Amino acid sequence: MRRVIIDTDPGTDDALALLMALNCPDLHIEGITTVGGNATLAQTTQNALRLVDHVASGRDVPVAVGAAQPAHGSFSYAYHVHGTDGLGVDLPSTARKPYSADAVELIRDRALAAPGQVSVIALGPLTNVAAALDRRPDVAKAISDIVVMGGAVDVPGNITPDAEFNIFEDPWSANGVFASGVPVTLVGLDVTHKTSMHRDGGPRWFEGKSKSAQLGNRILANSFRERAGVQDFYLHDPLAVAAAVEPELLTYRRAQVEVVTDGDERGRTVASFGDGPVRVALGVDVGRAVEVVRTLISK
Ligand code: BDR
Ligand code: CA
Fold it and tell me: Which atom of ligand 1 has the smallest separation from the CA of 78?
């Protein structure tokens, strides 16, 4: 079983990714760490707590609170994509409380307790992950690898012509992660914009009667209802979880990656291919990847 920490800003596609991870027999979730991004930190934390309670009520999955703002400035929030509450669907309120330690402590503690065994799957701005690594070579050495949903290397961005949302929101932290020496798998728009659920596939994108399948279907139905004319729900964050479970779903090129932090090109991920700590996903077996997403959420 692979031990993972999921850093996330739920977020509709984050929610699908969390459902996959919670249902996946090959992953042991050491903790979920929250960050502002798609919505405020208070909201993304509440969404994570409610989601875990809804589909995994008996399980001890710590949810630790992370950064409310990026390394500089403020998050801009993606309300137009995810709704003002980040999910667009109501989940029952929960008595579940955030973990006693914060996100940075959780990442550090779990990594140091099992050196080389814990992977991070980062589905939001990289603020927490960079903070956990900042001036802590011991932590960098202990984390086995980081799967990052973020970036647009050979394709246009989705928040500006050059930038993908997660990287744009905190380019400084993204640079910190890429320079940390920890092996990174970059699952960006190069592959996630090829991987979607189509509007016509509904209303039962996920099969069966499980809470997870039902919640997945509600999230997609609502997202399409709220966004007239949109045909594809991109599986950004779900593809990152799929990559952690089955890396061979994607093809990669090794690179050094740097992020532009200022000016019009802020958030652009510039890859120098050859050698480097980042493997950039450039190809995806779309059929198999969508099947992995479907199967895990349908459980
Ligand atoms: C990324 O941005 C967020 O809005 C999504 O949750 C995903 O992590 C896609 O660019
Ligand atoms: Ca996200």
Answer: 4
